[in-house]
From TrEMBL:
This is Helicase. The keyword Nucleotide-binding applies. GO terms for molecular function: helicase activity. It comes from the Bacteria. Keywords: ATP-binding, Helicase, Hydrolase, Nucleotide-binding.
Amino acid sequence: MDDEKIFGPVLYKLSLASAVSRGLLARYQIIVLELQDPVLTPERLYGEERYSEEVRGQRLGALRPRCCTRWRSMGFRRASPSTTGR
């Protein structure tokens, strides 16, 4: 969005830190997980079959329990239906 010819001039700039401190954006954390699985080799994850249903399912199957474990260790709780809008 740096191209003024396409997007027009900047009307107002607000830094991420300012938006969070003003309550316009929620605080966030970036969590990086390292996934080591003998079945999901780099060749499978980045190779020709990376978009196959089998590899996608295996990737999700390996990732989900690790994410849940990490979230629990950080004190996150499951979202209740009332907070998710469902």
